[in-house]
């Protein structure tokens, strides 16, 4: 399922997958912070990014991709770089950085061109220790550099069925000056009833699917999203092919000039 632009809806379901009778939905909730709260969120995201980049630098420089050893090697310096973050946010930054370093080192091992992972803005990740959801009041409590803030979030009526379900981690994301929470919600999988009815499905062009009972599924804009995803994948694949075919750099002498011929 493609992720739709967040500016269209206050709540947008980004992905859905299920296992063992439980469906996990990743949704985007639009926040409505005051100007002071928005400033605190921005400062929290900035310090989270500093902590993330520091762990990446240490992991990349030492070739270390073990999360526990990276934690012991970076925690004190990360606290000094980002003193406003609570300890759990530092841990989440280290977890994210460890994932990025592992991916980069694996790509390097395969001979691909890669550099130290760095982020201009790494979304802070919250867990049950650093945020709390109040469905009745429609507010979320977040740990920030300014302490715990109570910020309203918006859930349209059509998404009310997901209310009161347990949530997992959330990521704080800023997009075009607006703040969103990317939330993982666990909902029970729907139970189907046995039936002898038969329905034919035709994968359409302008719509994702059309069933034999004359029902259209999906939205027309999905086709453009699919085309954009195809163009991006083709560009990345072409870029990777160029990197693999790139010739090795010529040797350089001590003064930056080519070495003398033998």
Keywords, separated by commas or semicolons:
262 residues; three-stranded antiparallel β-sheet; 4 helices
Write the layout of secondary structure elements.
Elements: E1 11-19, E2 22-31, H1 35-62, H2 67-81, H3 87-109, E3 125-126, E4 131-134, E5 139-144, E6 147-154, E7 167-175, E8 178-188, E9 201-202, E10 209-211, E11 215-217, H4 221-245
Antiparallel strand pairs: 1-2, 2-6, 2-8, 3-7, 4-5, 5-6, 7-8, 9-10, 10-11
Helix pairs in contact: 1-2, 1-3, 2-3
Apparent shape: globular
Helicity, in percent? 25-40%
> How many structural domains are formed by the residues?
2
Computed CA radius of gyration, to the nearest angstrom = 23 Å
- Hey, roughly how much beta strand do the residues contain? 25-35%
- Global mean pLDDT: 81
Note the gap between the termini.
60 Å
Number of strands: 11
SSE pattern, N- to C-terminal: EEHHHEEEEEEEEEH
Number of helical elements: 4
**Low-confidence segments:** 1-19
The major beta sheet can be summarized as:
8 strands, antiparallel
Helix-strand category:
alpha+beta
């Amino acid at each position: 399922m493609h992720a739709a632009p967040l500016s269209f809806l206050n709540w947008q379901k980004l992905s859905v997958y299920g296992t063992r009778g439980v469906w996990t939905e990743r949704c985007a909730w639009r926040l409505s912070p005051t100007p002071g709260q928005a400033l605190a969120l921005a400062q929290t995201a900035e310090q989270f990014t500093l902590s993330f980049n520091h762990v990446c630098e240490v992991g990349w420089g030492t070739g270390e991709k073990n999360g526990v050893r990276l934690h012991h090697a970076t925690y004190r310096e990360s606290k000094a770089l980002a003193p406003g973050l609570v300890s759990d946010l530092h841990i989440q930054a280290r977890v994210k950085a460890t994932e990025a370093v592992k991916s980069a080192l694996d790509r390097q091992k395969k001979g691909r061109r890669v550099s130290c992972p760095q982020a201009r803005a790494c979304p802070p990740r919250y867990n049950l220790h650093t945020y709390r959801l109040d469905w009745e009041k429609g507010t979320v409590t977040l740990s920030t550099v300014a302490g715990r803030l109570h910020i309203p979030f918006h859930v349209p009526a059509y998404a009310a069925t997901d209310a009161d379900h347990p949530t997992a981690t959330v990521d704080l994301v800023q997009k075009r000056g607006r703040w969103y929470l990317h939330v993982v919600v666990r909902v029970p999988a729907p139970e189907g009833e046995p039936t002898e009815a038969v329905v034919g499905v035709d994968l359409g062009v302008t719509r994702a699917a059309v069933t034999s009972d004359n029902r259209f599924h999906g939205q027309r804009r999905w086709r453009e999203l699919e085309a954009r995803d195809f163009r991006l994948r083709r560009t990345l694949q072409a870029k990777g092919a160029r990197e693999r075919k790139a010739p090795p750099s010529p040797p350089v002498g001590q003064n930056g000039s080519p070495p003398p011929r033998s």
